[in-house]
Design brief:
About 40% of the residues lie in helices and about 15% in strands. By secondary structure, it is an alpha/beta fold.
């Protein structure tokens, strides 16, 4: 007897689901490049474009907060998120050894494998890819390696080249501290010295100061965003999240400044992109500053591209950023996917 395999899209078509019915709501472990990784797929209608949201950090999955932040997006897109290797649920399933390295190539290939899984599961040919911060490193790597899988790329809080990003972040933050006559912050920053650094603690010290100054110039995210939904509201997940965050951060910066960050250089990918590229940047972003992101944007070529600068927005997501992302996806990106 011939085995018949139905994609989810064909099943939805055969069942003629009403417009209000949930097409898919899956949260499960999926074999990805040799280990089980936690993948979430959610959407109200099968025919909607697939949107892959790659989390930042590294080590900061958005799966616990996705419903609160991106829930309304499920009406217009089928969302795909996953806890990356060394993060969250995936870390808890198979904690890596301390000397088990993460590499840009390995993380890129994981992202591509998740894309292939989601497209097959949903019966689609292409997906929209969205990255922010760390995942703005992975996004271009994934698109350059397999452009046929993606209809567009949307990047936020864009990392470009690590030396450029860290030097710009340090200089701009120190400038703000001096303008505010903030003796405590000035002392902390000047004690670090001008980047590059080899001490991984330096990055954390700078990040605490950037958060302080971004908070003064941006609109905060609501506290409700950061309340994890089930099955993430457990002591075990919290412990796995924290352990994965620590592991991934050290893999990123390295003990001697020799981690994945030292190899980040979007210019080495070449200026030509085969898919449309959209970059949304917070005007107050002190981690991946707008000037560095804009220089990269100006240097690339794509079938379509656009750079959007948002006031009252920093490095981390807030309602202004999320609303702008959805508006861009709805008005300019989705027609490309359709």
């Amino acid at each position: 007897m011939k085995k018949i395999i139905l994609t989810l899209a064909s099943v939805c078509g055969l069942l003629a689901l009403p417009a209000h019915a949930a097409c898919i709501d899956e949260q499960k472990f999926v074999p990805i490049n040799g280990i089980e990784q936690w993948v979430v797929i959610r959407g109200e209608k099968c025919e909607k474009p697939v949107l892959i949201i790659v989390h930042g950090g590294p080590g900061n999955p958005m799966t616990p907060y996705a419903k609160a932040i991106y829930g309304p997006w499920e009406k217009e897109f089928t969302l795909v998120l996953w806890d990356q290797r060394g993060s969250g649920m995936t870390y808890g399933r198979k904690p890596p050894a301390k000397d088990d390295p993460l590499t840009l190539e390995l993380m890129r290939d994981d992202g591509i494998a998740v894309t292939e899984y989601a497209l097959k599961r949903l019966g689609k040919r292409k997906a929209i890819l969205k990255g922010a911060s760390w995942s703005s490193v992975l996004g271009p790597l994934m698109i350059k390696a397999r452009p046929e899988l993606y209809s567009a790329y949307v990047g936020t809080a864009h990392m470009v080249r690590h030396p450029d990003n860290i030097k710009s972040s340090y200089a701009r933050t120190l400038e703000l501290a001096k303008a505010a006559r903030d003796a405590d912050s000035i002392a902390k920053l000047e004690a670090l010295g001008t980047p590059p650094w080899t001490n991984p603690r330096n990055f954390g010290i700078l990040r605490r100061v950037t958060r302080k100054y971004e908070a003064m110039a941006t609109d905060p995210a609501p506290a409700s965003w950061w309340k994890p939904e089930a099955p993430y509201a457990t002591a075990k997940y919290e412990a796995d999240y924290t352990a994965g965050e620590d592991y991934s951060f050290l893999q990123f910066v390295g003990w001697k400044g020799d981690g994945m960050a030292s190899k980040v250089d979007a210019y080495k990918l070449g200026p030509s992109f085969d898919v449309p590229v959209f970059i949304i940047q917070g005007e107050e972003d002190l981690v991946t500053t707008p000037d560095v992101a804009r220089a990269f944007y100006d240097a690339i070529h794509a079938p379509k591209k656009e750079f959007i600068l948002l006031p009252r927005v920093g490095h981390d997501p807030n309602p202004l950023m999320v609303d702008a992302q959805l508006k861009l996806l709805r008005e300019k990106v989705r027609p490309l996917a359709d």
